[in-house]
Specification:
Elements lengths: L1 H12 L4 H23 L9 H28 L1
Length: 78
């Protein structure tokens, strides 16, 4: 989470308001889908309850950090 906040601050500080919006949107979509799958046991995943919610948040944050890193790398290369 700290890496996401740092990346969002960097992007906003460099006048790139779209990158944090895309990262936040993607992170929330992944979190919602993973919560649905892991908490209630849909799509062939066992129901995990509260532990599933924690793993969903971890997965969503990893996707967000990866997306932010890719956007950062594309910005540095151009």
């Amino acid at each position: 989470m700290l890496a996401l906040i740092t990346m969002n601050g960097f992007f906003l500080g460099t006048a790139n308001a779209l990158a944090p919006m895309y990262i936040t949107f993607l992170t929330n979509i992944v979190n919602i889908a993973a919560d649905y799958a892991l908490i209630f046991g849909h799509w062939g995943v066992p129901a995990m309850g509260v532990e599933g919610a924690a793993w969903a948040a971890v997965a969503a944050n990893r996707v967000g950090v990866t997306t932010g890193g890719l956007i950062l790398l594309m910005r540095i290369k151009s």
